[in-house]
Design brief:
Elements: E1 11-12, E2 23-24, H1 27-32, H2 34-42
């Protein structure tokens, strides 16, 4: 994710019992990067 979307400021979540790969975006970020995300799905 970081490599493919290096302009997006992902908030990576941490868990008490471990685990990784879960991130959160604000609604504003989703709107801001919508075109970028859609292009990656279509590729």
């Amino acid at each position: 994710m970081k490599q493919n979307f290096n302009t997006v400021d992902f908030h990576w979540l941490t868990f008490q019992k471990g685990g990784s790969g879960i991130f959160a975006l604000t609604a504003e970020q989703c709107r801001k990067y919508r075109d970028l995300f859609e292009k990656s799905v279509q590729a």
